[in-house]
């Protein structure tokens, strides 16, 4: 691949004008935060004292009835945990004042590139006609949204940080209306926020691969610094399951990317899409552990026996499910997925945009909602629910052995006023501090 063909995030930042080229001047450009400004706001952490860490479970017979904790000093170096030591209240260190240390949160499904957040309250009336009606709406509103998308992405990132999130997998529109501009604008925002936030990007054909002429653009995006090839309801939007999935799989293989497909379809076409994607992954084992279905509502609309069967197949193919934890008529079989070893993650999807207006920015909220939906009302199951917010990292393993933090772990964590993980999930405390790569960023 030639230098001209490979467009990295950094290359966009060399000339920030690229981030808004072709979409008109933005009145909010002066509000952008440069990487240098962000760096000045962060504080290098070396030693913390009076840090509350979980040390084990307390049992009554076989039942976990409480979580044991103690206070420690935690030493950091080079963006990692260097050591966990006996507490020394007199140490010259950042005083955590008995706050609980938890892994930083990971949002695995969000659209940072198109949000109303950071601007005035706004509701856009949803269009009739399902997804195709919403595609028509997007074609109207995206040109105006692009003018401020970098600024608003930065503001949304700041909200996520305030909720304890230091990492997001963001889907970014690739379609004929915004072409590659939405991606370029988001690249600028991510570069500006890189001192306190990490991201991976999904090149997302929001308007379909063939329903609109997106294939050439997605091929171009695949050469850029993105991590996943996305997709959207292949049967509903493009009229076929095989053709769009085959294209997506081949593009991912050609460029060594992962796959993350939005699947809202809840009928037989949804089930058929799940099974066809599993088949393609099994034919191409390099995609195992790198392939995801977002939403995947079809799993909520099938009999329990079929849920068990598909969960077993998903686990065997190492295809993950990224669920926004819907409720009401669409309660996902998450306990079944977890029982079979399927990688389940979550994301807030959006805070406010033309698709939806409800969102706090907190994936801990999502973990709490999951616990409520499935009746996880005991100490053990509440503590296990934390893993949904941290992408499968928890302080204690299922037997109560301490497994986090340990030497060489990334120094990515939050401090909260909670006694343990179970209480944090149940009560969703305010985030007092977020530490990213050993730096205090919130």
UniProtKB/TrEMBL annotation:
<dbReference type="InterPro" id="IPR006311">
    <property type="entry name" value="TAT_signal"/>
</dbReference>
<dbReference type="InterPro" id="IPR011059">
    <property type="entry name" value="Metal-dep_hydrolase_composite"/>
</dbReference>
<dbReference type="InterPro" id="IPR052349">
    <property type="entry name" value="Metallo-hydrolase_Enzymes"/>
</dbReference>
<feature type="domain" description="Amidohydrolase 3">
    <location>
        <begin position="213"/>
        <end position="442"/>
    </location>
</feature>
<dbReference type="InterPro" id="IPR032466">
    <property type="entry name" value="Metal_Hydrolase"/>
</dbReference>
<dbReference type="GO" id="GO:0016814">
    <property type="term" value="F:hydrolase activity, acting on carbon-nitrogen (but not peptide) bonds, in cyclic amidines"/>
</dbReference>
<dbReference type="Pfam" id="PF07969">
    <property type="entry name" value="Amidohydro_3"/>
</dbReference>
<protein>
    <submittedName>
        <fullName>Amidohydrolase family protein</fullName>
    </submittedName>
</protein>
<dbReference type="InterPro" id="IPR013108">
    <property type="entry name" value="Amidohydro_3"/>
</dbReference>
<keyword id="KW-0378">Hydrolase</keyword>
């Amino acid at each position: 691949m030639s230098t001209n063909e490979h467009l990295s995030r950094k290359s966009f930042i060399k000339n920030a004008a690229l981030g808004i080229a072709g979409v008109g001047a933005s009145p909010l450009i002066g509000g952008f935060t440069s990487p240098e400004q962000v760096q000045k706001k962060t504080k290098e952490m070396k030693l913390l004292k009076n840090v509350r860490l979980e040390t084990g479970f307390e049992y009554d017979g076989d039942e976990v009835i409480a979580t044991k904790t103690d206070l420690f000093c935690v030493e950091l170096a080079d963006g990692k945990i260097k050591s966990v030591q006996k507490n020394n209240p007199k140490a010259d260190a950042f005083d955590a004042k008995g706050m609980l240390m938890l892994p930083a949160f990971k949002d695995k499904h969000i659209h940072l590139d198109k949000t109303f957040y950071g601007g005035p309250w706004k509701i856009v009336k949803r269009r009739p006609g399902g997804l195709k009606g919403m595609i028509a709406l997007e074609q109207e509103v995206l040109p105006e949204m692009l003018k401020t998308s970098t600024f608003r992405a930065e503001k949304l990132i700041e909200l996520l940080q305030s909720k304890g999130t230091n990492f997001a997998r963001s889907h970014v529109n690739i379609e004929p209306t915004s072409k590659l501009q939405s991606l370029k604008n988001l690249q600028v925002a991510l570069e500006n926020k890189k001192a306190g936030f990490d991201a991976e990007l999904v090149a997302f054909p929001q308007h379909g691969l063939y329903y609109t002429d997106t294939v050439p653009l997605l091929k171009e995006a695949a050469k850029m610094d993105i991590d996943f090839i996305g997709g959207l309801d292949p049967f509903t939007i493009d009229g076929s399951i095989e053709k769009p999935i085959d294209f997506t799989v081949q593009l991912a293989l050609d460029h060594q990317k992962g796959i993350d497909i939005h699947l809202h379809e809840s009928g037989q076409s949804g089930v058929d899409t799940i099974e066809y994607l599993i088949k393609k992954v099994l034919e191409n084992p390099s995609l195992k552990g790198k392939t995801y279905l977002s939403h995947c509502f079809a799993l909520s609309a099938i009999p329990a026996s079929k849920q068990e069967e598909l969960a077993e197949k998903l686990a065997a193919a190492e295809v993950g499910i990224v669920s926004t934890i819907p409720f009401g008529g669409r309660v996902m079989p998450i306990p079944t997925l977890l029982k079979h070893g399927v990688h389940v993650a979550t994301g807030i999807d959006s805070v406010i945009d033309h698709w939806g207006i409800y969102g706090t920015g907190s994936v801990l909220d999502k973990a709490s909602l999951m616990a409520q939906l499935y009746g996880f009302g005991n100490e053990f199951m509440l503590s296990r629910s934390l893993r949904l917010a941290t992408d499968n990292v928890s302080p204690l393993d299922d037997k109560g052995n301490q497994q986090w933090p340990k030497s060489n772990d990334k120094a990515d964590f939050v401090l909260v006023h909670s006694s343990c993980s179970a209480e944090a999930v149940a009560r969703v405390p305010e985030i007092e501090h977020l530490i990213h790569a050993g730096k205090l960023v919130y």
